[in-house]
Specification:
This protein is α+β, with helices and mostly antiparallel strands. It is built from 7 helices and 4 strands, in the order αααβββααααβ.
């Protein structure tokens, strides 16, 4: 084969360069289109959230897993003071009933635990009297236990020297409540006192 024939059969190098340039151009167009679509979607989402905030609507918050933050503060460790179990005769008249109740106080800090130990005889006396005023029917339901927990908290802080209002749901009326015939008095705004006992928890509750 002559050199002239070989030159005719070989493809011209310009065609390969044109195909390569065409492929690169198509890939660039596709990438640009995908990027533009993502930008448009992000702008639409941001505009929608901004319009919702302006209209007063709540925007769904990000979950803890998405933000990487926990709702519980690991530094805020709760402090609990368990009391010796209470065994009390109840106020039932038709039968002898008694209750065995385990109580744990949730307090604001460890220093309050030392105060509770100092006032413990008065605290136990107040709690015993509060339980003894109730019948078995008063303590059977969930509401009755919730009322007793509120009363235990009240009696505990009262024994520690705090002046607090008696729970309104416990009994017919709280201490200092106006009589039906008395004219209504103007309410005075009083600053709320931070009580050392945050909550009352039952660890045991048996009625027999």
């Amino acid at each position: 084969m002559s050199a002239a024939a070989a030159a005719v059969d070989a493809p011209p190098p310009k065609d390969k360069k044109k195909k390569l340039i065409l492929i690169i151009a198509i890939a660039a167009v596709l990438l640009a289109s995908a990027g533009g679509t993502a930008v448009v979607l992000m702008k639409k989402k941001a505009n929608a959230e901004a319009e919702a905030e302006e209209a007063g609507e709540e925007v769904a918050p990000k979950s803890a897993a998405a933000t990487g933050k926990s709702k519980v503060d690991p530094k805020a460790v709760p402090v609990f003071v368990p009391l010796e179990p209470f065994t009390v005769n109840l106020a039932d008249r038709d039968a002898e009933r008694y209750a065995q109740i385990g109580i744990t106080l949730e307090i604001d800090d460890a220093k309050t635990g030392d105060q509770i130990k100092a006032y413990l005889p008065a605290i136990r006396n107040n709690i015993l009297m509060a339980i003894a005023d109730r019948t078995a029917a008063d303590l059977m339901g969930r509401d009755g236990k919730a009322r007793l927990a509120a009363r235990v908290r009240y009696e505990t802080v009262r024994a520690m020297g705090y002046e607090v209002a008696e729970p309104a749901s416990d009994g017919e009326a709280g201490e200092g409540a106006p009589k039906a015939d008395a004219p209504p008095k103007k309410k005075r705004s009083k600053p709320e006192v931070a009580l050392p006992v945050k909550a009352v928890h039952f660890s045991n509750f048996i009625i027999q």
